């Protein structure tokens, strides 16, 4: 066998035509078909594992996973024969459990399948014209029942089991909706179709006996036990916010934005065939999937609706719409989301919903997002309904889409936008891949497809780097060795493109239509493009066509460069393989076999041997214009070939999608490894530059990467390794735009910083004031709490005294009770001791009596035994005598019997002869009847065998039920233990509850006492409030004054702004009048010059007044000069002197204006500094005023204390020295007396008002300067704050 091994590494693609093509294995792993594999993909860790299809498989038709997720069934066609393979998913790697390939009934293919709830049975449906439904016991490969579902060759789309019943089956198709039950070895229909037959596309079980079915006309039916219970219809209207979504997606900077058990679906081609006559506007329900709250269904292109069950009803209402997002990279973004959703699938926890579409795409959405959006939608609906009631039930706007049907209609207003799916991995190809290329400097793969798209993949990270769609189909692609450029052959032109960081941009086009092959040279300095039967060579430096290679008579199918780019090899449909010398542009070698149409060609690394594959089922080894060897392909056509850069291995692709790995030199026939890869012919194959990875693409739209090993499992490496480059191309305009955006953002950040700093300062000032207020409040509260605390302490002391007295009383009572109890107990003990002695005497007497009775019983027992032995010995002697007599009688009877026997034998011989003749006749009759009975016994044996099988099954069921019974008994025991423990807990908790109730009773008593204290405190609070009311009235008066001052300030600001606007308008009018005056003056000068010239010319004409003819000519000349060409006169009037004067004046005015602007800027900066200085001075003055007020307050409190201390001394002095006059007393007290508090505060407020007025006058004077505007960033402290602070100080001053 070959020493080369290829292992599948990653698959980029999906086969959407496979029925039931996506489902969850667990919460993170999904399974979907790609190529000829089923792929297990982990959505979190991004790894893939592969389940290979069968050998020589032609097509994968349907998938099904068991409910316990242990088994996977795959329906395939292998060599035109149907095959069902069941894999065990739990084993690693997945192994084949059973293969169903021997069928006793006619079958062409199996179109859909389903596992039973217990995973023991499998249901399969065959294609028309047979249309058989087969019920399998798949582990024994046994057909339990078979029934024909349709006789009119209609297509069946889906079959399924009831979620809880193995015997209940549902089948839907074109005009088919059948419920069947398996009983007694047959499938019997249990429902009857009523009404017109519909084209039922999909169904799902929402409960044990309820099924939701969807049709191709957008209708949904709910059936219960075969009877219709509910019906509704879906109608699609274009969403109004699609264009908005498209614009939002186009604004994205990146080229493409990847944000960071389903119901089986019929083949899309089948439905298109059956539904070609249906209306395009009606949404087709291709897929339905049930979940715990209801079900989800596809509702037309790119749209899924979620339905939830209504409370207390068996009906469903639409709860949410989910759409496929618009793709901005599509050639027609408005139609990019119009994809038919073919399959729906919920994760086991119902957290994620997956869908697959007709364009081979996979989308997902987390259900929690739909719940959040649904909650916001319900809030919007609630607000809209309130608004609707207030507005008199008016229209609130157009409905974005409407869902209605029968008696029940559902609508969603335009305010509730639908949720959107996201790509599960990345956008995939949706048609045959025609081109494949790779490069040296980067781990990139370039592909192009008939879906009109170009995609750049990364085979190291297994991601999509770039993607773009075009108007024309792309046939071929080649990637420059540097990885920065591609050349693509479109249907209309050949384009050379740059691979930018986020775009694919064309920079050169060539008029080569329908180019099917192109390739960069290994050095990247040249590239070749095929146009029919001509090869065009271009240089990548000047982008010019340097030569054309002509010689093929048919279309060229493949080209290949040799290692040093000196030669080019080509092959075509004409059976020719040519080797071209590029220096001369001529053929060096040629090999023509007209019977073979070549598909692909390659050359060995030493450029000596050419390998070509074509339609003649062989691989040809060509050297020096002759075929050295032909290796047969064994009934397949080779479509692609590639040789490694080391020259040690060859890979060949076939028309059936397989890959063959061979070693080089080429081995004997059939020495190769065959790998099932794709589901269609392989179109292109490549090896990466380091020979580590094999890349293959096919007509099935899938791209596969393969890891290449040798036989021992070691990777095959090149002699030298090249590190991958990380550089990318970026255009200058993009860089400039991003730099501009960065500058704008920086300026914005600086502005925001300034604003935030200013806001923080203001907040600090506000918070400092609030903190002061709060501290005052808290000090007052603390004082009140201290008083309360003292009251509570006194109460506590009283309570302690009361409790001590109470405890003393209780202790006295307890001692008394103890003494009484001890006396009572001593008397009881004496009585009990006396009773004990009496009972002890009774027990001794009873014991003596029982001993006497025992002795009597022993004596009577011995006497009875002696009498019985004597009686039975006498009987024994009698019986022996009778036995001897009986033996003698037997001997006599034997003698008589022998004599009678002889006589009877003689009589019997005669009778036997007579009977023999009779029974011979009877035997003939019995044989005839026996033949009849044999047929009957055969029938009975079959019945008996079927009954035995049923008995075995029933016995198995009984055993399983016994096991379940044992489990349930164990559960019951554990539950009984739990009940006992819970009873104990209940008892404990009852005890704790009693304790807590006692505590609650005590606390209630305390609460009543506290309420009494509360009543006293409330009375005190009311008295304090009465004292506070006059002060609050004063504060209100001051606040009204502050509001009046604020209104004055606002009025002044409005007047200032109005005056500024008036000044600007007057300046504009003045400039306009100046310009008009200049124009009028210029016109006046022009007219004066014209009049002067006219006068001189007229004076010259007067000289010819005597000569009529010459006078006539001169007058005519004047007329032509000044009358007929007036416009020319005006233009000529603007002589050069005036223009010079005008330009000089203009320059002078511009200079003046520039100097004035500079002056204004300087003055504004000076004023700004003045404003800042004034503001700082003002703040410092306010601080000083506040400090002085604090000192004043302290001194007043000191004076008050001193006066209080001096009052008794004054009285004493007055008594001792009564003769001293009042003047002396006044003289002593005079130093401590000061101005009245109200007069002092009034004087301070008056001074502040005068200062504010002075500052306002200064501001008005500066604003009157022309061109001056106040600076917005600097603001004076508000007058309101000052007045507030003054009012606060006044409120703090204590009234004596």
Automatic annotation (TrEMBL):
Pfam families: Beta-prop_EML_2 (PF23414)
Compartment(s) where it occurs, according to its Swiss-Prot or TrEMBL record: Cytoplasm, Cytoskeleton, Cilium axoneme
GO cellular component annotations of the record: axoneme
Coiled coil: 836-1090, 1139-1205
Superkingdom of origin organism: Eukaryota
Key words of the record: Cell projection, Coiled coil, Cytoplasm, Cytoskeleton, Repeat, WD repeat
Residue span, EML-like second beta-propeller domain: 434-708
InterPro entries reported for this sequence: Beta-prop_EML-like_2nd, CFA-57, Quinoprotein_ADH-like_sf, WD40/YVTN_repeat-like_dom_sf, WD40_repeat_dom_sf, WD40_rpt
PROSITE patterns membership: WD_REPEATS_2 (PS50082), WD_REPEATS_REGION (PS50294)
First-listed, main subcellular location of the protein, grouped into a coarse class: cytoplasm
Mapped WD repeat ranges: 426-467, 549-590, 675-708
Family: Belongs to the CFAP57 family.
Subunit structure: May form homodimers. Associates with components of the nexin-dynein regulatory complex (N-DRC) and the CFAP184:CFAP263 complex.
Record function comment: Associates with components of the nexin-dynein regulatory complex (N-DRC), a key regulator of ciliary/flagellar motility, and might act as an inner dynein arm (IDA) hub or linkage.
Protein name: Cilia- and flagella-associated protein 57
